[in-house]
Amino acid sequence: METTAWTLALLVLAPALAVAQAPPNQKEIINGYLPYHRLVAEDFSVSDTDRSPQGMYTYGFRHYNYRGVTVSKDGHFSARVTEWIVRCGFDRNRSWRKSWFKAFNEMLPHEQGHLDISVLHSTRLARMSLDKLPVGEGESAQAAANNLKSKLEALVERTSKEAQAEQDVYDAATSHGANQSKQREWTAAIQKRLKKAGIGY
Fold first, then answer.
1. What's this model's pTM, rounded to 2 decimal places?
2. Are 99 and 49 in contact (CB under 8 A)?
């Protein structure tokens, strides 16, 4: 049996040993990927390029990297993750408010909800146990590593789609924050989920 260890870092759009969630690193922060926090109006740069009727938009980021080991047995190779780190937070590059939109303070609770939902899904991904993560298979060490990479990309993409589906339900239920009673209900429910998951600023 032959064993090979390796490291691969990947950036997604949109996480040593075992499973971890980590804040953005210094390079990410410099590039506008900020730690999870309570949003303020100053977080949103002014941009009028988007043609949607929305006055504000919040985008959460999800970056990951991992290390793995490739094992050879009887001419067949398998690749497994040995370290898994997910970093998530607020993407200042893709979040904005329009110059004509003045009610951003009133909309911040709604936008916070979008960020919270993004972080909840990222945290679930970060906390997946190593034995639940995909295993790559192939006829060579490289083929197994490539197969693992593809499977992890699909896992992260599935997480992103699930998060977006909830974002869409959230917008529809709250009328993009205009329905204040529904907004309060969603905010309370999201806060409970954050508390249960042990997520804080």
1. 0.88
2. no
